[in-house]
Design brief:
Blueprint lengths: L6 E3 L2 E3 L13 H8 L1 E11 L3 H8 L5 H4 L10 E8 L2 E9 L5 H6 L9 E9 L3 E8 L2 E13 L2 E12 L3 H4 L1 H19 L16 H12 L11
Antiparallel strand pairs: 1-2, 3-9, 4-5, 5-6, 6-7, 7-8, 8-9
This protein binds fe (ii) ion.
Length: 231
């Protein structure tokens, strides 16, 4: 076998898998590792979907209250802002959730950690990285989702979770936050195995700016073309 060329950058080891690099390695993970501590990894799995459909799902700001309704009980997505910086972008939205009853909380104490409104800031680095910045009751989390094409119809994904504790109890809850991350990945993988990606789209929904960003960048990669999508 040919040895892979590895690139070591701070705490991270990268590889282009023997392909010619088209874009530089993102430096954002080094910045996160400098100010957050590493909580752990989760959700490492192959998903039977191509890279484009994986990315379209991850940047579809309408799917949370359907795909992620179980456990998180997201009732709607209140979309606020999209900042388009070419291969990098930011999306800001709030996701109100339906409350759990006291009996449900007593039988599943983990759900007490779910906020009443999930405030999302997604920091996106096309094509391989989505960072969910979340404010938790006892600290801040940076949940980094990676996407690596394995074959034409197979995409690998995994999560590296970083945290910033505002209260010492946050460090004790790392395992629970990792479990939440795994549930998110499994819910997305489940839906990606059930959709009909080649069905023609006949209607346009309200919060598709992230999907438009994916389609634009995918079509012109590694160049960035019009339109500019900030809103
Ligand atoms: Fe999702």
């Amino acid at each position: 076998m040919q040895p892979l060329e590895l690139i070591i950058q701070g705490d991270f080891i990268w590889s282009y898998g023997g392909y010619e690099p088209k874009i530089p390695i993102p430096t954002v993970l080094n910045e996160i590792a400098n100010s957050y501590y590493f909580v752990g990894h989760t959700g490492d799995r192959s998903v039977k979907t191509d890279l484009l459909n994986m990315l379209l799902n991850m940047h579809d700001y309408n799917h949370q209250n359907g795909t992620h309704r179980d456990l998180f009980r997201i009732t709607e997505v209140e979309f606020h802002q999209f900042i388009d910086n070419g291969h990098q972008s930011h999306a800001f939205y709030d996701m109100p959730t339906a409350p759990y009853s006291l009996a449900e909380k007593l039988s599943k104490p983990d759900v007490m950690l779910l906020p009443r409104i999930i405030k999302a800031h997604l920091e996106n680095h096309f094509p391989s990285l989505v960072i969910f910045h979340g404010e938790m009751p006892f600290g801040k989390a940076a949940q980094c989702h990676f996407f690596v094409p394995e074959a034409e119809n197979c995409t690998r994904t995994y999560v590296l979770l970083f945290g910033q504790a505002k209260h010492p109890v946050f460090k004790l809850l790392g395992g629970t936050y990792l479990k939440f991350g795994k549930v998110v990945v499994d819910q997305d993988a489940d839906i990606l195995g059930k959709i009909y990606p080649d069905a023609p789209q006949k209607i346009k929904l309200n919060n598709e700016v992230g999907m438009d960003w994916v389609r634009r960048n995918f079509a012109s990669f590694p160049n960035v073309t019009a339109p500019h999508l900030s809103k």
